[in-house]
């Protein structure tokens, strides 16, 4: 069998371009949720996000086209045919999922009524109109595809580490160009994100520690391999790929896709379509029209301003607050205080939340505080997840309640 010794030059350039675009996206997305949802800066960052997405989609289409024109196995490598088959399967899956992530992302934005633009200079024509049902469906799988990216990164790093210790071929060379760099970027950024929810300095420290860890693994792996004189160095030379290798590859890839498709529900309680109990009303009404409670709103304090930038801002990623605004993952909260739980019009509630309302749960200051401190205790079976963690500090709870009253219990100015 006549096989080329490496990827084409064009494929390598595309691989590095995809890796650079992916790295830019994961870094951007680690900061974007921390920016005020309605600020001008956030829209500017969205423009960067859309632009990188467009570049990635074009590069990925070009790379996938070349994929089928190039040899499946390489002659200048000490990896077996079975290993290369698995590595290529993971790599192609990642390229395909990343392409799907970008395309679904555009659909999600259009369905939410947002304008997809290139750095605020050129607006792309919307291919679909605003639709909450399409937004829910596309948004769910956009989130799922992002989780696939993370899972694939961990697999690539694990397999790359094994190859380094056994074969002396690290993650950057064991996979097609760009895949190893994408995996490292995903891992390092994730270490920052997981440790920076409440204190960004801890995120930076975690990032540095993760970098040091990667370097230590690389050095030890090289050293270990150099001592293993029995390490295989033969090329695959076109050896056939066994049935076990093929089955194992498909099983791993299928499992990753299946698990990731379930993770948005498991992690955030979201679903791809409206299910549950709905209070039927005019479809244009998505908020409580009648105010049933009078509230006292205190002046903003410096502490409350800090809570607004941290704990409270996560509320607005799932809830709208004003009349006329559509539901998001959670219901519109306009006029929510004093209302029976599970009764905002045209929102699909979980059975647990609907039943809690029928059993007499009313949203007042004390029940809201208890709910954000431990949602499952107050309403077993509800779908709400407090993204940054339960709000248990009484002073922080008071600030969240005052912010909620200021935004949800006062009409548009």
Can you give a write-up of this model?
The protein has 413 residues and is an all-alpha fold. It is 59% helix and 2% strand. The protein contains 14 helices and 4 strands. It has helices at residues 9-31, 40-67, 81-111, 132-167, 171-174, 179-194, 200-227, 243-268, 302-309, 311-318, 351-358, 365-373, 375-378, 394-408, and strands spanning 117-118, 122-123, 277-278, 348-349. The protein has a two-stranded antiparallel ribbon. Strands 3-4 form a two-stranded antiparallel ribbon. Helix 1 (9-31) packs antiparallel against helix 2 (40-67). The radius of gyration is 25 Å and the shape is elongated. The N and C termini lie far apart (73 Å). 33% of the residues are buried.
């Amino acid at each position: 069998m006549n096989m080329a010794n490496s990827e084409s030059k064009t494929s390598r350039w595309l691989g590095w371009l995809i890796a650079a675009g992916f790295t830019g996206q994961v870094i951007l997305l680690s900061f974007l949720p921390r920016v005020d949802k309605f600020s001008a800066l956030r829209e500017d960052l969205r423009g960067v996000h859309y632009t990188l997405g467009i570049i990635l989609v074009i590069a990925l289409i070009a790379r996938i086209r070349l994929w089928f024109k190039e040899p499946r196995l390489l002659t200048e490598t000490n990896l077996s045919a079975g290993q290369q088959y698995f590595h290529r399967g993971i790599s192609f899956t990642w390229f395909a999922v990343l392409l799907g992530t970008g395309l679904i992302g555009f659909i999600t934005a259009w369905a939410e009524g947002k304008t997809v633009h290139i750095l605020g200079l050129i607006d792309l024509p919307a291919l679909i109109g605003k639709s909450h049902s399409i937004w829910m469906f596309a948004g769910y799988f956009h989130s799922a595809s992002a989780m696939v990216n993370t899972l694939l990164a961990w697999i690539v790093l694990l397999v790359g580490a094994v190859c380094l210790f056994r074969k002396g071929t690290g993650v950057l060379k064991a996979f097609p160009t760009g895949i190893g760099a994408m995996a490292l970027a995903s891992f390092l950024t994730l270490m920052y994100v997981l440790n920076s929810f409440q204190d960004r300095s801890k995120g930076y420290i975690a990032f540095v520690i993760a970098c040091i860890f990667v370097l230590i693994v690389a050095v030890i792996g090289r050293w270990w391999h150099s001592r293993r004189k029995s390490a295989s160095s033969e090329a695959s030379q076109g050896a056939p790929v066994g049935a076990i290798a093929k089955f194992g590859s498909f099983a791993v890839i299928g499992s990753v896709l299946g698990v990731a498709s379930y993770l948005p529900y498991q992690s955030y309680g979201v679903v791809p379509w409206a299910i549950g109990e709905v209070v039927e009303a005019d479809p244009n009404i998505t908020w409580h029209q009648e105010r049933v409670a009078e509230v006292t709103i205190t002046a903003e304090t410096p502490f409350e301003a800090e809570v607004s930038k941290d704990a409270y801002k996560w509320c607005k990623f799932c809830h709208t607050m004003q009349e006329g605004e559509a539901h998001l993952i959670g219901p519109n909260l306009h006029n929510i205080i004093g209302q029976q739980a599970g009764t905002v019009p045209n929102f699909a509630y979980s059975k647990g939340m609907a039943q809690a309302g029928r059993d007499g749960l009313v949203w007042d200051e004390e029940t809201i505080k208890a709910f954000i401190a431990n949602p499952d205790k107050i309403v077993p079976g509800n779908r709400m997840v407090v993204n940054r963690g339960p709000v248990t500090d009484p002073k922080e709870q008071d600030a969240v309640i005052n912010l909620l009253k200021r935004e949800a219990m006062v009409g548009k100015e």
